[in-house]
Amino acid sequence: MYPPVAARPGRLHLLRIVADAARLKPCRKRSFGARPTGGLLIAPLDEFTAVYHRASGITHLLTEPAPQILAVLGEGASSLDVLLERLGRDYDLDDGTREALAARLEELVEAGLIERA
């Protein structure tokens, strides 16, 4: 959204969730994990969740299911299928398909909030 020079403390960055999974590159590795402990500061804000990424200095505003994905991956790396099963069991997913979850994961990877394990 902003050039890298604009990323500094206090700058907000809105992560736009793309509805069309076909627009994203397919995931090569199907296992994902959270960033190292302490790399993210997370604060719920009504329907948004603010996530400050210390390494980049960018604050991301997330909506469901991104905060839930971060919470599950915070417990340990997980494959796409295991993550889908876990999220489906713990949360009410509107678009609970494998393709939709792969798209959300790819967006979080591109934002630097999670990594491929």
Can you describe what's shown?
- The longest helix is centred in the C-terminal third of the chain and has 14 residues.
- The protein is an alpha+beta fold and 117 residues long.
- It has a 4-stranded mixed β-sheet with strand order 1-5-4-3, with no helix packed on it. The chain has a 3-stranded antiparallel β-sheet with strand order 6-2-7.
- The chain has one domain: Outer Surface Protein A, domain 3 (Alpha-Beta Complex), CATH 3.90.930.
Output the number of helix runs.
3
Query: How many DSSP E strands?
Result: 7
Number of domains: 1
Cα-atom radius of gyration: 14 Å
Report how far the terminal alpha carbons are from each other: 26 Å
From the helix content, strand content and strand pairing, which structural class follows? alpha+beta
CATH domain fold name: Outer Surface Protein A, domain 3
**In what order do the strands lie side by side in the largest sheet?**
1-5-4-3
Question: Main beta sheet: strand number and arrangement?
Answer: 4 strands, mixed
The shape, in one word, is: globular
Offer a concise description of the structure.
The protein is an alpha+beta fold. It has one domain (4-116): Outer Surface Protein A, domain 3 (Alpha-Beta Complex), CATH 3.90.930.
SSE blueprint:
Elements: E1 12-14, E2 31-34, E3 40-45, E4 48-53, E5 58-62, H1 66-73, E6 78-79, H2 80-90, H3 98-111, E7 114-116
Parallel strand pairs: 1-5
Antiparallel strand pairs: 2-6, 2-7, 3-4, 4-5
Keywords:
four-stranded mixed beta sheet, 3 helices, alpha+beta, 28% helix, Outer Surface Protein A, domain 3, 117 residues
